[in-house]
Amino acid sequence: MSTQKHAFQAEVAQVLHLVTHSLYSNPEIFLRELVSNAADACDKLRFEALNNPALYEDAPDLRVRISFDADAKTLTIEDNGIGMSQEEAIANLGTIAKSGTREFTSRLTGDQKADAQLIGQFGVGFYSAFIVADKVIVETRRAGLPASEGVRWISQGTGDFEVEPIEHAERGTRITLHLQGDAAEQFLNGWKLKSIINKYSDHISLPVQMEKEEWKDGEKEGEPGRMVKTGEWETINQASALWTRPKKDITDEQYIAFYQHLSHDFAPPLAWSHNKVEGSTEYTQLLYIPSKAPHDLWNRDKKAGIKLYVKRVFIMDEAEALLPSYLRFVFGVLDSADLPLNVSRELLQESRDVRAIRDGNTRRVLGMLEAMAQAASAKPTDADVTDVTDKSDASKTEGAQANAIPEEEKYARFYAEFGAVLKEGLGEDFANRDRIAKLLRYASTASDTVSVSLADYKARMKEGQKAIYYITADNLAAAKSSPQLELFRKKGIEVLFMTDRVDEWAMGFLHEFDGTPLQSIAKGAVDLGDLQDEEERKAAEEAAAQFKPVLEKLKQVLKDEAEDVRVTTRLVDSPACLVVKDGQLSNQMARLLRQAGQ
Ligand code: ADP
Ligand code: MG
After folding, report:
1. Region (A) spans which residues (predicted)?
2. How far apart are the first and last CA of the chain?
3. Does 100 contact ligand 1 (Cβ within 6 A)?
């Protein structure tokens, strides 16, 4: 059989161009990406072998090996994972399966460090090999196929690649990089490679090995000594899954590196929580709260970034059953001791253990948020904000010191990035609605920053005030200039500004807070109760009587536009305003629905 030439998909060619032209100043990330692919391939083999142990052939010990040849200027990364068939090699290394390439390219910032993170986030890590290599050779055989069905894939990283069938006795993938000038000097060095692997791949749960080298003195007088390979492989990473190690043995740097591996986020997380939970169902959870929203947070099908393991065997990414969707910004790992190894997504939805895990994860995340929120408020107001439901764990704010953002600013940061997502929880998670309500923050007539909690508001309520007042609007400026605020301003009654698109919908699920009703000032006749003095009430009644003929006329003229026209005391300077009948969609909601084409 002969060699076939294939053109790269247009997007790949574009990514290759970008990668080689914009990431050359941070070249070492190629190793992170290739080792991470090798580890993924081993995870996939382990998973498929659950149902078909023959796939292990006679090599059950999975590992990644890195070697180099300084004379030939080659660096080789080899794994005995799942490997690829010919079709898979063509599809996986010649096209980009995941959508969003255009987004990837549009998000490149020119900041090479940040851009290097994007590579992993958008599933184009393999192509980073071409940052350092002018030729890449992939030799691979898929587990379960005969040795004769090996494949060799070769490309110089320009317009096309070649594929040919080869004999390949060992299962898995060997990637040989022909390093170009600078890169050859930089990376063909055992010490350098080890330090990169330690930096990026320490938490990888299988052994990453390099051939041991020994110093050998020159044989004759004057001949220089040199390092020589011994033929023996040594494991250079920790090679144990990070979450299985005791907390006290894990440094903040290791937790952060693991987060960055999971999330492809360049910034450190705001907080994390690592717990072994025992009880009716046993599991280990390691959950992180990012400091930055991912690019796809608003995708309707964005899944929670939780990887599911069962007894340390990787089962699936994005296990959406493990967290409610309003917490989809969380990254982490869940390792269950009880679920069956062959658990499917469908089964997960029905499992009682999974429900318990999901509840436990939800409580844990809310607990982390509460701890951050508490650190943000100078004087803690609520005593009941710490999570005491999981007795197995005593810590609440681990990882708190690990971020450059000061403790008291973290919650504001979190809220700016994810507050709008959290609000979805009001409609989605009735059991935790009160806890979520306590985490909400708004700007108001008393605060320009989004920092007023419902409890703060209550504490400042006027004598005789019976409701928490709010107004929804497209943005802060629109909220502030609303004529409906006039009377409240005059009387010094605080009004919360709700300016997220989700607010209107979310408030449909939150009718009261701690016994006090929440009321939109854009709805119905706002009853200020005891706050309205007798004189005002009288004046309004008199005005209503006096203006009766005018009102009748207005009603007549506006009969197709307005349901009612009445005299109000809510305005101070403006002559008129629109309000919505109680129990009806507000202006803001109606506008949103119109925008959505409803
Ligand atoms: P991602 O890892 O996000 O899927 P990459 O560009 O890193 O994106 O890799 C593309 C695909 O190539 C992988 O999804 C996988 O199918 C395949 N692949 C890459 N490296 C290996 C490997 N060592 N063994 C098997 N398949 C691999
Ligand atoms: Mg990858």
Report:
1. 1-345
2. 59
3. no
Residues in the chain: 598
**Cα–Cα dist 469/380, whole Å:** 23
**To test the ligand 1 pocket, which listed residue (16, 37, 117) has its Cβ within 8 A of the most ligand atoms?**
37
Report CA(127)–ligand 2 centroid distance (Å). Answer: 9
Q: Treating both helix axes as pointing N-terminal to C-terminal, what angle do 112-121 and 10-22 enclose, rounded to 10 degrees?
A: 150
Outline where 133-189 has alpha helix (H).
Answer: 181-187
To the question of pTM greater than 0.80 for the whole model, the response is no
Q: Which ligand is nearest to the CA of 128?
A: 1
Q: Do residues 376 and 450 lie in contact, with contact meaning Cβ atoms separated by under 8 Å?
A: no
Query: Which residue has the CA at smallest separation from atom 16 of ligand 1?
Result: 92
382-386: list long-range contacts, CB under 8 Å, 24+ apart.
382/438, 382/455, 385/438
Residue 23 near residue 115 (C-beta atoms within 8 A): yes
Six token digits for residue 312: 């340390």
Whether the complex's predicted ipTM surpasses the cut of 0.95:
yes
**Most confident among 108-122, 127-141, 235-249, 311-325 (mean pLDDT):** 127-141
| Whole-number pLDDT of residue 598 | 45
HEC readout, 512-542 = EECCEEEEECCECCCCCHHHCCHHHHHHHHH
126 lines ligand 1 (CB under 6 A): yes
DSSP 597: T
Distances (CA, A) of 135 to 20, 153, 179, 382: 13, 11, 7, 62
C-alpha dist (Å) from residue 83 to 13, 89, 167, 175, 517: 24, 9, 14, 11, 61
CB atoms within 10 A of CB 571: 16
Q: Is 125 in the pocket of ligand 1 (CB under 6 A)?
A: yes
DSSP, collapsed to helix, strand or coil, labels residue 446 as coil
- Two structure tokens written together for 108: 């490149």
- State the Cα–Cα distance between residues 24 and 28, nearest whole angstrom: 9
